[in-house]
């Protein structure tokens, strides 16, 4: 069957690293990046790894984190021009530097920007071209400890933990020695598992392909570091979901990969909400309606139950539970949406229409500015703007826009009535009040990806390869499956359940959503 090799690269504490690079004395120190806001709602949006052991988390105020970590260095996000918004251009520029490196490494690799600090790379063609090379030589190279220096195998087996806790009887003479021994043990297990994995590569091309992609990812991360000074982590797997999932297993400055066939083991104890595409409504309703908390539980749920409860999504849910994901890596370096938004938590909630108008106006100006920048940079024009308002429920409406709306004030004139139409009940105000307003411009005209990297090109290439390997019938079936999957994906997206990392929403703070980095509550979905 068709198997792919996908790498997910995610920058470590990205905005914090940008600040550390700006001010090198901050490297190695606990750093928090604070988004200041005139209404008193300052909150951390990035936290360096040095600050994390103190319990400092995204969303905390300056005071809260100073209490936990008195030595923390706080960097402020520059202020934007409009609507009391942060100006995150400097982080976007740093992101562009990273993507320039990611995109320049090998033309056979398909690169998809998934968010400001994250990219999927489809390395299938690249590793397949290398698999055929002299095998013994390749294996010897991979066995060299210098080849995969920061790689970990994630196979869902618990043996790391067992061995970790054994030697505890020896009096903890000093903490330092104990920590050193512990790290040595971790390193020993890491190396042993890698060796076992590479040994399997002698007989199994699927293993070899993953190992080659991991080798590639090591070098790619090294290159990113060399060119930008930034550290990142990576995950390698047979699809996007698994690559993203294992990337988080060892961070920062590390990478992880899964032995083919271990997907179900890796997923067994994974929380549903940590899985790509299940971070939102769909994931929540799995828990609420069926009591499913982990992927293992989802895997064991009879298909009849899933089909009865989630008729449209059941096939996809069952696939994901098996660790299968056919979502393709789109050659896409441009964002699909330009978004601006703001939270109004607690007492900040908007009750009056005048206040709503004020904020919509500010956000619209901010959006217009971004659309204008984007137009110049990418020579494309948004054809649609979505207004998203959260009161006790979230509602969104989209409007067609065009050249007319580029004129000062025109976009607001178009959006304000739309927002008005979302107001419930009688009277002038908003009851229940507004907790979030977001705008997103999308459905761009022009701005197509370059020809040789285009999705079409990729599909054509793969189709030809497959036809040679498997015959026409199998390929036709695959294409039908792919079409059906694409349709379901679009449906999920429409329902607002796709995690939508692509539609990044920057500068919003998640004051009311501190616990996990489940960003999707603030994402705009068409
Ligand atoms: N970000 C944000 N608002 C959010 C989520 C993320 O502004 N609600 C920004 C952060 O400042 C962050 C960047 O987007 O630096 C990337 O986010 P993410 O990858 O989730 O976290 P990192 O800070 O990079 O930390 P990690 O090392 O855990 O990936
Ligand atoms: Ca990150
Ligand atoms: Ca990220």
Automatic annotation (TrEMBL):
One of its GO terms (cellular component) is replication fork. This is DNA polymerase eta. Belongs to the DNA polymerase type-Y family. It holds the Pfam family IMS. It catalyses: DNA(n) + a 2'-deoxyribonucleoside 5'-triphosphate = DNA(n+1) + diphosphate. One of its GO terms (biological process) is negative regulation of mitotic DNA damage checkpoint. GO terms for molecular function: damaged DNA binding; DNA-directed DNA polymerase activity; metal ion binding. Its EC number is 2.7.7.7. Residues 470-493 have a biased composition (Basic and acidic residues). SUPFAM superfamilies: DNA/RNA polymerases (SSF56672), Lesion bypass DNA polymerase (Y-family), little finger domain (SSF100879). It is found in: Nucleus. Residues 470-526 are annotated as: Disordered. InterPro entries: DNA/RNA_pol_sf (IPR043502), DNA_pol_Y-fam_lit_finger_sf (IPR036775), DNA_polymerase_eta (IPR052230), Rev_trsase/Diguanyl_cyclase (IPR043128), UmuC (IPR001126). Keywords: DNA damage, DNA repair, Magnesium, Metal-binding, Nucleotidyltransferase, Nucleus, Transferase. Residues 6-279 form the UmuC domain. Gene3D superfamilies: 3.30.70.270, 3.40.1170.60, 5' to 3' exonuclease, C-terminal subdomain, DNA polymerase, Y-family, little finger domain. Coiled coil: none annotated. The keyword Transmembrane helix does not apply. Residues 494-506, 513-526 have a biased composition (Acidic residues). Its cofactor is Mn(2+); Mg(2+).
